[in-house]
Amino acid sequence: MSGSVTTSEGPAAIWLLFVRVMMTVFLLHFHSPIGQLMALWQASQIISPGAFPDPVLIQNAAVPMLLVAGAFLVTIGFKTRFMAIALLLILVGVSALELMSIDSLAGAREWFPRLSVIFCLLAAARFGAGRWSVDGLIAARLTARAAQ
User: Fold this and answer.
1) Which residue, 3, 84, 131, 133, shows the most beta carbons closer than 10 Å to its own?
2) What is the Cα–Cα distance from 115 to 30, expressed in whole angstroms?
3) Which sign does the torsion angle of CA 55, 60, 64, 70 carry?
4) Residue 23: closest CA among 115, 130, 135, 132
């Protein structure tokens, strides 16, 4: 019965896949790290066209690059817990800094997607990627090898 699915394993795998995909949609749509990377690229072309980009711009691009790469890795389910914790720390830190700098509640409508991403990352860090992920495939292959 190595290939059979129990009643709780199937819905949990579907739920974890849904959480991972929704986290990526919310993160890439509402936080727009790809737009930030494009703006940094345009700024580097204005500052030093044809040359190596400015080190300050590369440093400012680190967080959006980590958000894009981390969202992709969490979505496919590779090293999910590690990346979820890394993204969680970054988003909580950025959220705390923005909360301290907000003068009014004008940015309050952006908190629902932000909290949604944070809770999805908490779920991914707590429960892992599930069966339908790269981590799940690796675990299944290791279990099959151990059974031989």
Assistant:
1) 84
2) 11
3) positive
4) 115
Which distant-in-sequence residues (6+ apart) come within 8 Å of 135 by Cβ?
77, 78, 79, 80, 128, 129
Round the CA-based radius of gyration of the chain to a whole number and report it: 19
Average pLDDT value for the chain:
79
- Domain boundaries defined on the chain: 9-147
pLDDT in tens, 46-102: 776 666 666 767 777 778 888 888 889 999 989 989 999 999 998 888 877 777 776
Cα dihedral across residues 16, 25, 81, 111: positive or negative: negative
Binned at pLDDT 50, 70 and 90, residue 4 comes out as very low
Q: Is 50 helix (H, G, I), strand (E, B) or coil?
A: coil
Q: Do the Cβ atoms of 74 and 127 come closer than 8 Å?
A: no
What whole-number distance in Å separates Cα of residue 10 and Cα of residue 48?
Answer: 53
Instruction: State the residue for tokens 């394993």.
Output: 9
130, 132, 136, 138: CA torsion to nearest 10 = -160
Distance CA 11, CA 114 (A): 26
